[in-house]
Amino acid sequence: MKRENSPSGDSSESRTTASPAINDVQANWQRVVRRRSFLHGIGIAGAAVLPAGKLFAQEEGKSLSKSDAALLRFAAAIEFVEADLWQQYNELGGQVDHNDNPNPGNPAYIAALKNLDGDMPQYISDNTDDEISHRDFLNAYLKSKGAQPIDFKQFETLQPTKAAGALGNGRLTNLQKLTVDTSWYFRYRSTQNPDLGAKFPQLLNIVNQPAIPLNNNYAPATIQAIANIAAIHFAFIEQGGSSLYPVLALKATSLEVLRILISIGGVEIDHFSLWHDKMGNAVAQPVAPFSDPVTGLTFPDFNNPASQHNAMLSAADQKAGSQMFQTNLIQPEPCEFLSPNLPACSIIRPTLSPNGGPMATVQSFIADGLFANQNPQFLEQLMDLASEAEAARREGQDQ
After folding, report:
1. Taking the alpha carbons of 277, 87, 5, 12 in that order, is the dihedral positive or negative?
2. Secondary structure class of 11 (helix, strand, coil)
3. How high is the pLDDT of residue 41?
4. Type and span of the H or E element at 178
5. 219-234 burial: b if 16+ Cβ within 10 Å, else e
6. 201, 281, 377, 384: which sits with the fewest CB atoms below 10 Å from its CB?
7. pTM reported for the whole predicted model
8. 53 located within any domain
9. Is residue 163 part of a domain?
């Protein structure tokens, strides 16, 4: 497991990467509702309120176009993947288990996560619920429209960790040897935009490292390093969804499909904002700085001016100085948008397919190591779904 790791100048583009019904939905939804309390009846004084569903009533009973079905099938596939990985994180570090009972989890892992934020276990359980609800809703909606839902259960064959707290069932994703892209950290602090050609180096070089405990009785520094990797990985996963859903929405023909994609996509952005904040605590006092000899990882305090340098940053980003490293700078910095000739704008980025679309999303998961040791047939199915979503076009959209 040991690997020399330190703040790295490797870019995400050049770094070497790892190779390779409805009843159930209702039951899961009721479980989510029991855990969450929602505010109802929020309105604006003087505003006219349309009857519920009126705007989209004309779409009831209609079948999906081929393109819209491809978009939702791919979204469901990604949510299937995310639900699997979040369930693993929840087993070991969540507040409640899959039956909504208090979760014993892995005590050392939970303690290390709480060093980052005392509410980390609750946030993990909530995020897990959200991804399950996305997966189940999308599949139920597809079935209601006569389209084929997504089911990867046959590929849940990867062995779970042997650490205390993990269940014994097979897994779809592999969290035991990740190579985590951290270039997004600079991307959201930069005034430059990847959709206009900007490139960003890695904040940290996390290569072939576990994001969950593989066994028990780790030294304090090692379990903290693993928890830090997890927090950074949380943000990596959710920033991907933040970009993917706008890309899919731009291809939608049906207003109802557009509504689905922007509604779920907004939650992915919310997740990213949360984890962007929490992962910053992995590279700030009082947790950082520290090094772990077992993983070989070093976590600097990036609020210390002595650690605020990376020679691989562009000249413009180097000129920005501490802005590129400051850990509490979690709101997207205004950047170029559409054209360098327009004023900078605070946005989610990227929102074009080459960097944030279906194929880019799958490729990023493969590079992450999420599918290490997976059946090649699974990857073929996932790539086919991505290809179909890439080819989807809104009716009347120019090619």
Report:
1. negative
2. strand
3. 37
4. strand 178-180
5. eebbbbbbbbbbbbbb
6. 377
7. 0.86
8. no
9. yes
